[in-house]
Specification:
By secondary structure, this protein is mainly α. The chain is 91% helix and 0% strand. It starts with a helix and ends with a helix.
């Protein structure tokens, strides 16, 4: 295994990680922003109001995006497993 292979695989793993997690983080950010604006407008400062909508929204996004996320991770894993025999001497 060459150092270039290890570095490239690490970079690819970070790229896949960012691509897979960004939609969930974006949903959490959007819901958090909406809840914050709602709290500022109504002056309702309830702590559970900030967490429960985010949890529900992220769960629903995970439910809908999980096939795509699984596909991305399986493609990455398949790519790693197919490249290992060529790298081992």
């Amino acid at each position: 295994m060459t150092p270039e292979f290890v570095v490239t695989t690490g970079q690819e793993a970070i790229r896949v990680l960012l691509i897979v997690t960004m939609p969930l983080l974006g949903v959490a950010l959007a819901v958090g922003l909406v809840v914050s604006v709602f709290q500022a407008v109504t002056q309702l400062q309830e702590m559970t109001l900030t967490f429960v909508p985010k949890i529900i929204a992220v769960f629903l996004a995970l439910l809908f995006l999980s096939p795509w996320m699984l596909s991305m991770m399986m493609d990455f894993t398949r790519h790693i497993f197919t490249n290992i025999p060529g790298q081992v001497r």
